[in-house]
Design brief:
Order of helices and strands: HHEEEE
Structural class: alpha+beta
Radius of gyration: 35 Å
């Protein structure tokens, strides 16, 4: 009797050990699938992160170019400089390239501006639009300000 109990214990122990010795093929495949899904998700996240970073850099560049143009136009004489004369009513200088109201400071970047009469004498309302063809989203930045003759 003792011998039979001993053998049954050894059989139970050996069957338990054989089950827990390693991972089955199904478990390995499931673990690989979960890991692959996680890595693909991370790769997509990295790609989107890089695109957003590039877009933010292009928007920052456009904003700096707009501010530089505002600074440049604030320094000129309102009475004599053609770039700060009140924009003609004809074609809108913010949507089309009008002589004296646009430039291209960099490749694939166009700056356009519109000058309107200000609320007081010797003042102008200046709107500068930078159109950046390299930006994927929001490739246009507008900056408006009031300038005056000192």
């Amino acid at each position: 009797m003792k011998r039979e109990q001993s053998q049954s214990r050894q059989t139970a122990r050996s069957s338990f050990l054989s089950c827990s010795r390693g991972a089955s093929l199904i478990e390995v495949l499931v673990a690989t699938l979960v890991l692959t899904i996680g890595l693909v998700g991370m790769a997509q996240l990295m790609g989107m992160s890089m695109l957003m970073h590039l877009n933010a850099r292009e928007t920052t560049t456009a904003t700096q170019l707009a501010q530089a143009k505002v600074d440049e136009l604030m320094k000129v004489n309102l009475a004599t400089a053609p770039a700060v004369q009140i924009t003609p009513a004809g074609p809108d200088s913010l949507t089309t390239n009008v002589a004296n109201y646009f430039d291209a400071p960099q490749a694939a970047v166009t700056r356009r501006w519109r000058v309107q009469a200000g609320p007081a004498a010797n003042t102008r309302i200046l709107t500068v639009r930078v159109i950046n063809a390299r930006a994927r989203q929001g490739g246009q930045v507008d900056v408006s300000t009031l300038i005056r003759q000192w």
